[in-house]
Amino acid sequence: MKTFIVASLLCCIVVIQAQSQDCKCYSHYDGKCNSGGGVGQPCQCTLQIGPDTRPADCEKLIPKCLLMKKESLGTKAGRRVRPAGALIDNDGLYNPDCEDNGSFKARQCNGTEMCWCVNSAGVRRTEKADKASKTCPELVRTFWVIVQMKRNNTDAVSIQDLETAIRKVITERYRLPAKYIKKVEFEENLIYVDLMQNSTEKVPGEVDIADVGYYMEKDIKGDSIIASTSPFTIPVNGKNFLVQEPLIMYIDEKPHELSMKRLTAGVIAVIVVVVVAIVAGIIVLVLTRRKRGKYEKAEMKEMNEVQKELNS
User: Fold this and answer.
1) Nearest to residue 149, comparing CAs of 220, 92, 207?
2) Which candidate among 156, 215, 275, 303 keeps its CA 20 to 30 Å from the CA of 231?
3) 300 membership: H or E segment, kind and range
4) Separation CA 188–CA 179 (nearest Å)
5) Domain of residue 92, residue span
6) In which element (H, E) is residue 119 found?
């Protein structure tokens, strides 16, 4: 009897372990999954976001809003170090307000009295204003995401093979339908991937291109969100084609409302340097002409004196 009980317990343990092994959170390294009601039942997954445990669909990308909130709040178990420049927008990482479905709320305040409007990628598209007066009537959709990256590989590969490999990574790793990959272009050592998905094309439940851009940026920077069992690679002819320095650009369905105040310190510095260089060039040119004019006058004066001496 004891032998039977022990054997039964072992069988139960094996079944439970098998169920746990079948349930993995593909789309986030920190996702927790179990088999729910038993064998054959769909996996039930959760993601810890600060103090809250939220249900998650681990078979597709987690919405960017929830990923940013998780990164800004950390987890009970600790927080991963965020690489410098993880976000391309000038406001950096902030704790966003998300809708129940994981999308960004149109107005963001980051827990302060100053608020602004964002697009569907969570990037600021208006100037900041007082919380009491700032309203954002709609969440403007980002319909075009451009992923720029540098090739970090000197191997000579066929452009056609490389384009095919990049498209395959996007459709298989990020589960984005191929119809939204509009173009892959190559310019010297730069690669551009155009993802386009307007509000009329996107089917409910499909991956959003803004989420794909965020996942790709993390992958290329070596700070992958996807489970470590699925490392990021771009296989071309049996070798991993390396890329680096991602830059994600967003184009919205409506023009943004940002002024020149939006310029970063780097852009302003470049403008200042150019202006100073132009002014310095003008000054040098004027001084040179003045010296040349004085030299020509002196030369004419000396020639006149020589001529007078000859006549005398």
Assistant:
1) 220
2) 156
3) helix 265-311
4) 26
5) 60-265
6) none
